[in-house]
Design a protein that fits this description.
CATH topology: Jelly Rolls
Helix content: under 10%
CATH architecture: Sandwich
Distance between the termini: 36 Å
CATH superfamily: Jelly Rolls
Order of helices and strands: EEHEEEEEEEEEEEEEEEEEEEEEEEH
Largest sheet: 7 strands, antiparallel
Number of domains: 1
CATH class: Mainly Beta
Radius of gyration: 18 Å
Strand content: over 45%
Structural class: mainly beta
Length: 267
Amino acid sequence: MSKLLSQSTAPDDRGRIQCIDPVSAGWEYVGFEVFKLKAGANLDDGTGGTEVCLVLLSGKADIATANEAWRNLGERSSVFDQQAPHAVYLPPDERFGVVAHTDVELAVCKAPAKGEYPARLIRPEDCQFETRGRDTNRRHVCNILFGNANAERLLVCEVLTPGGNWSSYPPHKHDDDRGSEETQLEEIYYHRIDPPQGFAFQRVYNDDRSLDETMTVTDDDVVMVPEGYHPVGAPHGYDLYYLNVMAGPRRKWLFHNDPDHEWIIGS
């Protein structure tokens, strides 16, 4: 199995099914966890030296810190509901608790930070929607913690790619810090598939092909993109959702298309 692919595990005693940290990923900035909590379950944790974006992927929950409390968050039963999620931004050195009112799927997105921004709620109406591409290159993007909201390093969005379509396409990369042309960003793809027995494909490759891997992605899998181009294909009949988490030296999403395939944009 590719070292870039993390398959989900059965929930541990805290409900965690995915755990990626900079050490396990072999990079510097992005940390990521997914919890599937049963109704009535509690999750208590801390942000440590990172800023954290808690994304309530599905279900209803309370989220609280020592100084703030947000009750009855969550309006969707699935990531495939066509609406934005609730999310909570937390600075470093903050304890937080989550109480699940229903079964809950929670993503915990992390990046190193100093503490420039306070804890706050990100409401569905604070998110930004856009549709990119056309024909079989169409996907629907929801910016959760992107240009719509401040953070020190984290960039968080979710993408819904209809079955039979391509996403992150034409292939692009963001692994080189080149001023106004490209930024260096590590990236996580947390994949969900509808119906869940389906699959998708993701390729990660660089210019000299010293990295060139194509992975079969199933429901709840994570693909790590430390460098290179990273297109995704969703087969006919299976809609693909993914949560993107990015971070790097600069909090700016500037990418470079693979020149061999850039002609597709003009077509």
